[in-house]
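Researcher: Good morning. I'm working through a list of sequences from a screen, and I'd like to move beyond sequence-only analysis. For each chain I'm collecting a predicted structure so we can compare shapes side by side. This is the next one on the list. No need for commentary yet; just the structure.
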Amino acid sequence: MTHVSPDLVNDIRAASRRLVREFGFLDKTIAGTDLSGSGVHAILEIGLNPGLTAKDLVARLKLEKSTISRLLKSLEARGEIEQARSASDGRAFGLNLTQAGQQTFAAINRFADGQVRGALSRIRDSNAETVASALEAYADALAVPLADGAAPVHQYEIVEGYQTGMIGDVAAMHARTHGPIVGMGPTFESVVSNAMAEFMPRIGNPANNSWSVVENGEVIGSISIDGEDLGNNIAHLRWFILSERLRGKGLGKELLVRALDHCDRQGFDEIHLWTLKGLDAARSLYEKHGFELTDEYVGDQWGKAVTEQKFIRKRPGSRPAA
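Model: Good morning. Structure tokens for this chain:
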């Protein structure tokens, strides 16, 4: 890590505190409005990105989901925003500014533009461009957290729903990971691809969903819940896979928890999954989250005889069948 002098750190901290005060963030309201700082930023993000979802806003504003929920209810009650069900995903609601919200958005922009133009008019020559590039670089650096003084850790984002190219990406990961067990060749990868191709057009149905880790447009980890194919109010956990370089980072647990939360919200009585014997790390993760091994048998659907296992998780608090 590059050595940074204590004096430089103190200077930047002092300047940052002054920025916070000059922007008015210590006041109850900012930007010439009667809104809080989070309210102003929410209006700006929605105005700049019409159709933004609440989940998107959580990530952009770095606030808790419950905080965003309360904030959106407040802005909706004021008549600043409105929510409409997404045409592409029936479970999601896009956020848009109302006419009143557009007026607030314009007022915030006028106030902020005036602040910036006034400050830049007092900075000579080309220093204004230096300020802009330095602020951008500093903000980018702040967005990457440090672990115990170590180098910046690459951050992976988990996204929901269908991702372009994910059928091929996920099938390829399964083939590379499980090929040594089921046998190399096209059979296993083809079965996975065909099953995913049948499922993905149904992913917008409320019972179904998928969560993926995406890097540079490539899916490098994923899990899906098919709530329709097994029937009897049973969810099918499918295509749970991580690129080898992601293992040990807690992302597998996070993907699984999101899938289980979805199933519990949907009220499924049970979740079933099928896997291959010998995947001990995956089995341990399943069992830590309530799955129990219920069946083990030799199957040859992949082109080679392998021992398959079936795990079932019953919904917490559900009554056993009579």
